Amino acid sequence: MGLSLVAVFIYAGSMSTSDIVAAQQKWWYAVVLFPSFVIYVISMVGETNRAPFDLAEAEGELVGGFHTEYSSLKFALFFLAEYVNIVGVSALATTLFLGGYHALPGLTFTEQWLGGWFTLVWFFAKVSFFFFIFVWLRGTLPRMRYDQFMKFGWKVLIPVSLFWIMVVSTLRVLSLRGASRISVLAASFVIVALVLLINLLYEASKKKAKKTYAEPSSPNFAVPQIPTKITEEQHG
């Protein structure tokens, strides 16, 4: 989750939430920094222990979770803290990626309603959208195993986040040095093409290695027949 925010700070040139929201007046970072947005959404679902990453709840169902021995108000407080955490990560996602209190494109005139207080309606509407995402994922996706969760985090999310940070840093330096928009887009296209090429070559080498070291379909040596009831009846 933290790595997905680094690209936002680099692109905005500030760690102030007010500056980040002001920088999204034209384009939301959910569009400009789409990989960071996707990584953050996946990470916030795992951070709040919601499906399909609700492994703590899975342990509770198997009588091994941390809240198994609690009931009544104490048990309710555990789940209340979970939903408060959902509100926090949803508000942070709204601030950093969905323009904060800014209205939807084409409806910016509504920001002046009620003396500017109508922007709170937009903010809570975006937070409610993330609530819908949480509920939707819980009713749609099956629960992941621990090994799948760890493999997805260490082999997919972290490498992609680090690579995306390098791409954003390079493009940011080029833009600060006065490079044209066409050159910046060309550089990003070349970087993405190289990464896709390397990935294709890597996958091809993996398939070739699996084919080389694959076990034969039929053994090259005689296999004794295992005696069963049917074979005993056949041979008397």
From TrEMBL:
Pfam families, A to Z: NADHdh
Region spans: Disordered: 215-236
Record's GO cellular component terms: membrane
Molecular-function GO terms, alphabetical: NADH dehydrogenase activity
InterPro entries found in the cross-reference section: NADH_UbQ_OxRdtase_su1/FPO, NADH_UbQ_OxRdtase_su1_CS
Membrane topology field: Multi-pass membrane protein
Record has Transmembrane as a keyword: yes
Gene Ontology biological-process entries: aerobic respiration
Subcellular location: Membrane
Keyword Transmembrane: yes
Keywords: Membrane, Transmembrane, Transmembrane helix
Transmembrane segments: 28-46, 75-101, 113-136, 156-176, 182-202
Name assigned to this protein: Unannotated protein
Originating species: freshwater metagenome
Lineage of the organism: unclassified sequences, metagenomes, ecological metagenomes
